[in-house]
From TrEMBL:
It catalyses: (4R,5S)-dethiobiotin + (sulfur carrier)-SH + 2 reduced [2Fe-2S]-[ferredoxin] + 2 S-adenosyl-L-methionine = (sulfur carrier)-H + biotin + 2 5'-deoxyadenosine + 2 L-methionine + 2 oxidized [2Fe-2S]-[ferredoxin]. Homodimer. The keyword S-adenosyl-L-methionine applies. [4Fe-4S] cluster binds at residues 67, 71, 74. Belongs to the radical SAM superfamily. Biotin synthase family. Binds 1 [2Fe-2S] cluster. The cluster is coordinated with 3 cysteines and 1 arginine. Its EC number is 2.8.1.6. Its cofactor is [2Fe-2S] cluster; [4Fe-4S] cluster. This is Biotin synthase. Residues 49-279 form the Radical SAM core domain. Pathway: Cofactor biosynthesis; biotin biosynthesis; biotin from 7,8-diaminononanoate: step 2/2. Catalyzes the conversion of dethiobiotin (DTB) to biotin by the insertion of a sulfur atom into dethiobiotin via a radical-based mechanism.
Length: 330
């Protein structure tokens, strides 16, 4: 019976053992009526291995639109006909202002995000490192950035500027990646993650569910992240944007979204599993249940091109469920 399988595998993880791909696949085939049981087990695993703290991060879209890459989900791609406000890199003062606002909202980390393939021959790179240094001088925030594909020299420069974690999503599984993006490869993304880890920095890397991938491909992503030993795994849910190639993708069932969170927690019991973009539209009133399905991190406030619930609502929800947001000032 489904619930016997869930309890058996849950005990295995709680005893310090690892979930296999075949076992994870079995958990994708349970009855919908048994998904709440799976969520409860995932929550218990989260409590045992990561406690009651929630890692909070706020981002700034510091350079927007006009991206050369053809990622089918992305409103910022120049390959799509999306009515979208593009702008060059924000000034240092504007980025600092966003960081101070994030700190006032209760964020523990702040991430500078730029549209584009990566930093090769990018004239803005030095300005970005200067902004990172200034944030370090004038706030107490942990600093992160998401600048696309990096060389080892870029990573060294970012580490010197004060970055402690770098964000670079795999987006989806290797077997599905070329259905989502053709202008760069999955292996290039993996190489950047390895370059970051080689410098001793933490890695934030996850993906988007609901792109049209199979359950097997979704699990392939989870196990790839496990093999790469990433520290933080943001799970986004596709929020189709009019004008992109995926504008007509049907939404996932909310219970499937929660089931995905729970299975990722069992595969990655000790890691930060981060609530990210699309959760509000995908889950609606069920958003609080995400925290009871293994989540222990979240983006607060708004996302790159869409609005969130707001930092206050996000943090209030987490606190009401017994979570303690990590804060330098706590």
């Amino acid at each position: 019976m489904n619930y016997d399988l869930i309890f058996t595998l849950g005990k295995k993880i709680l005893n310090g053992e690892q979930l296999t791909f075949a076992e994870a696949l079995q958990l994708t085939q349970i009855d919908e009526a048994d998904i709440p049981i799976l969520l409860g087990i995932a929550n218990k695993v989260r409590i045992k291995f990561t406690g009651d703290q929630v890692d909070t991060c706020e981002i700034v879209n510091a350079r927007s639109g006009g991206c050369s890459e053809d990622c089918k989900f992305c409103a910022q791609s120049a390959h799509h006909d999306v009515k979208f406000y593009s702008y060059p890199l924000m000034s240092e003062d504007q980025i600092l202002q966003a960081a101070k606002a994030a700190e006032s909202h209760g964020a523990y980390r702040f991430c500078i995000v730029t549209a584009g393939c990566g930093m090769k021959h990018d004239p803005d790179f030095e300005k970005i490192t200067q902004s990172i240094q200034r944030i370090g001088r004038e706030t107490g925030l942990e600093r992160c950035c998401s600048l696309g594909i990096l060389t080892p020299d870029h990573v060294k420069a970012l580490k010197s500027a004060g970055i402690t974690r770098y964000h670079h999503n795999l987006e989806t599984s290797k077997s599905f990646f070329n259905q989502i993006c053709t202008t760069h490869t999955y292996d290039e993304r993996v190489e950047t993650i390895k370059n970051v880890k080689a410098e001793g920095l933490e890695v934030c890397s996850g993906g988007i569910i609901g792109l049209g991938e199979t359950w097997e491909q979704r699990l392939e992503l989870a196990f790839a992240l496990k093999e790469l030993d990433v520290d933080s795994i943001p799970i986004n849910v596709l929020n189709p944007v009019k004008g992109t190639a995926l504008e007509d993708r049907p939404p996932l069932n909310p219970m499937e979204v929660l089931q995905t969170f729970a299975i990722f927690r069992l595969i990655l019991p000790t890691k930060i599993l981060r609530y990210a973009g699309g959760r509000e539209k995908a889950l609606g009133e069920l958003v609080p249940l995400g925290f009871l399905s293994g989540i222990n991190g979240m983006l607060i406030g708004n996302y790159l091109t869409t609005a969130g619930r707001g930092a206050v609502a996000d943090l209030n929800t987490a606190r009401s469920l017994g979570f303690k947001p990590i804060s330098e000032h706590a």
